[in-house]
Design brief:
Elements lengths: L2 H21 L6 H12 L3 H14 L4 H11 L2 H47 L5 H50 L10 H18 L3 E8 L2 H8 L1 H16 L7 E4 L4 E7 L3 H16 L2 E3 L6 E4 L2 E7 L6 H17 L5 E3 L13
Parallel strand pairs: 6-7
Antiparallel strand pairs: 1-3, 1-6, 2-3, 4-5
Length: 352
């Protein structure tokens, strides 16, 4: 997407955000603007569902409810708080585990000392009665120690299970922070981090690296004509086409509102063209049906631009050339794949 297109699209979101603030008579604080901009862009599905539920019930949303929603979904401290919560629980579990191990070590030491004393006493046994008492004492001591060790084993098993659950919680938080909720593809943050890492690995390994940037043709039209729910359906359809045509080590992301970025490690530009064509054909082959009415909305198309790693490349330069190739596909009529080495790629112009 060109800077001009990016400008137009974001201004639409910005105007919508201000309209929502005015309609609900909310203070124009930066956090309120951020919340309604996020709502207008449709990226945070959970946030949108929560707001829609309140609007359907009350017709408007109060400043107090706005603050609660912001704290729940957008506050920069929220993710850190959740990580801290899980980290505190893991720390507590580890402390209890260390305490249990200390008790077990102490019990084993006491048993060893008592066993040594009993064995020493056996050397001076003079009758069966004394021997019987020492054997009974030794058996009792051994039973108590075995029971203590069994309790320790059970606690260790339980602690391992608890720590495993907490680790899964941390992984879920990490997954959530790097995943686009609507499409379940990786999000822009993951894309940016992964492309920087892929470029570095390619510099070291000298293996090929290719990048696809795709854009849904006339997406704004779908949203304007059929509503955001249908627009969401389109996004999910394209995401599915992407998932079905990439390999395990490829990194597919929702790059922007209707844009997708696919990082293809160890993939030449020729192989990247094959993958891009498969995705494009997969998308155009699907008929779109409006779920609420069953109305056939026809087919959607996407345009795809491809760049490949060059010596001295950065993540930004690869994205820039893939963007230029994408505009070449748009300019040539859309529903096309264009690679960067193809001649006559135009400079960035206004493309709707």
């Amino acid at each position: 997407m060109s800077q001009e297109d990016e400008f137009k699209r974001t201004i639409v979101y910005a105007d919508s955000a201000l309209d929502y603030i005015k309609t609900n008579k909310l203070p124009a604080f930066p956090r309120n603007y951020e919340l309604w901009y996020s709502y207008a862009s449709g990226f945070n599905r959970a946030l949108n569902r929560t707001i829609n539920k309140i609007l359907a019930r009350d017709g408007k949303i109060s400043p107090e409810e706005t603050q609660k929603i912001y704290n729940r979904f957008l506050s920069p401290n929220r993710l850190g708080e959740r990580i801290d919560e899980v980290g505190d629980k893991i720390s507590e579990e580890v402390r209890e585990l260390i305490s249990a191990l200390d008790k077990g070590t102490l019990k084993t030491t006491e048993y060893g000392e008592e066993l040594a004393r009993t064995l020493s006493a056996l050397e001076n046994v003079s009758d069966r009665s004394q021997l019987s008492k020492l054997v009974i004492h030794l058996a009792k001591l051994t039973t108590e120690t075995a029971e203590s060790n069994q309790e320790l084993r059970e606690q260790l098993v339980d602690s391992r299970r608890q720590i495993g659950v907490l680790q899964e919680g941390l992984e879920a938080i990490r997954y959530e922070s790097l995943t686009d909720e609507l499409t379940t593809l990786n999000n822009r943050k993951h894309f940016d981090q992964s492309l920087v890492r892929a470029v570095k690995e390619t510099e070291e390994s000298h293996a090929p690296l290719s990048l696809l940037i795709s854009d849904i043709d006339h997406f704004k039209q779908f949203n304007d004509n059929y509503g955001h729910q249908t627009g969401d359906q389109v996004l999910r359809l394209v995401a599915l086409a992407v998932k079905q045509n990439v390999k395990n080590n490829d990194i597919a992301c929702r790059y922007g509102g209707e844009e997708f970025g696919i990082i293809l490690p160890r993939t030449t530009i020729e192989d990247a063209k094959v993958i891009a064509e498969k995705i494009r054909k997969n998308v155009v082959a699907k008929e779109l049906v409006k779920r609420s009415t069953g109305e056939n909305l026809g087919r959607i198309t996407i345009s795809i631009g491809i760049s490949t790693f060059r010596a001295g490349d950065s993540a930004e330069s690869m994205v820039s050339r893939a963007d230029l190739a994408l505009y070449a596909a748009k300019k040539a009529g859309r529903n096309l794949v264009k690679a960067e080495e193809e001649k006559k790629i135009p400079s960035v112009t206004q493309v709707a």
